Amino acid sequence: MVQRILIVDDEYDFIELLRYKLGGHGYDLIVASDGVHALSQARQMKPNLILLDILLPDLDGLSVCEILRRQPSTKKIPIIFMSALTGDITKRTAAMHAEDFFTKPLDLARLEKRIVELLNVAVTN
Description:
This protein has 125 residues and is an alpha/beta fold. 46% of the residues lie in helices and 19% in strands. The chain has a 5-stranded parallel β-sheet with strand order 2-1-3-4-5, sandwiched between helices. Helix 2 (35-45) packs parallel to helix 3 (61-70).
């Protein structure tokens, strides 16, 4: 079964980097460049994992996560936040039951490892 990952970020070059790094692993990658589109894609495409930036147009990543966690069809999708923001933002994302937080620029090897861990857990549950 192909694992589907929703990448939510408004930076084209960053999305392309993730596509390049993750596409070779056989994941089905879906992209959204703003919060509203991310919610739509999550509801329609039912990804196995979401990589979610915090600073987005229309609706920020924290709000997207909050909305997804309130909906039965999306509340159990693992979410990894990605952001250049630091400090108390990591506490806020943990309080929202996000699975992880990665500071940009990303440690791509560590991110890939974490994705595999989360998807393996999701597959066995």
